[in-house]
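Ticket opened by: R.M.
Priority: normal
Category: complex prediction / small molecule

The reporter submitted a protein together with zinc ion and asked that the result be attached to this ticket for the collaborator who will pick it up next week. Submitted input follows.
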Amino acid sequence: MLALPQVAKSKVALPCSALDNMRLVLLGPPSAGKGTQASLLSQRFDILHLATGDILREAVAAGSSLGKKAKKFMDTGALVPDAIVIGLLEGKMKSTQSQTGFILDGFPRNVDQAKQLEEFTDLDLVLCIEVDPNRLVERATGRRSCKNCGAIYHVRYNPPKQLGICDKCGGPLFLRDDDNEEIVRKRLRTYEDQTKPVIQYYESIGKLKYVEGEGSIEDVQKKLLDAIVEQWPQLKDAAYGPMPVKKPVVSTPPKPSPQPSQQPRPQHGQGAPHGGGGRSHRGGRGRGRRGRYFGKPGSKGPNKP
Ligand code: ADP
Ligand code: ZN
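Result attached by the on-call engineer:
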């Protein structure tokens, strides 16, 4: 039995505004568009995009002690035990020390993981993308991912500019082994069995909002933004304004966090086009900015009593 890493459970008395520490989870069936949408939200709100599958692969590649433990399970095709996944996730959250928060993409996958996650972070909002199963198969089989940076494309719905080459980093695109119809249908059944109860769990604690995931990537993004603005009306400008441009990495000390009464954190480029890129544990590795820890805050988000 693996022991969970020691986690500070005391509530930190920090001024908490959802604007400077937004903690989101994006759930939904396989190939519903979680990765695609989380990447856009991460870019727009300058929050960290965390996908546990990538964190696991990264830990294995780095040869860390949890990575070595995870590898034993991954090599046999078994699921990695919750304690290892949670330990890696928590480590990642701590090491990046984001001031602005995070979006978890496709995690937690079962109710146990959801409960353990609640032990060390206080989620603000869980968004669940709903898509018709037949459409999911089409999305999965057309998916192409960048080997290098993890960017996601679709041969028909979101093709790269150059066939087989990532727009963002020039890396090679590949089709995942598990993205064939038969396996996708199996993954859908696992989702029904194990992950649907997670959705019910978040519904029962009042953190869930459903978002309809049919329509174009832009349509779905707009619906997610609507749900976020419903939660935090003060984010309206940040949500519907132009996509922020990626800021250069700075080595100078960070400015103090804005007070909750100030303007929303995201800074917008002057009519900049999309495509600046958010913060991902894969590429940017955060910016090393010192700031609020991901631990439970001292006060609740704006719409919480
Ligand atoms: P998930 O992370 O939920 O498994 P992805 O974000 O990888 O899903 O999306 C699955 C595939 O479907 C990708 O190829 C992606 O480009 C494509 N896709 C995502 N959202 C849409 C959409 N709204 N319409 C059409 N294709 C989409
Ligand atoms: Zn790439």
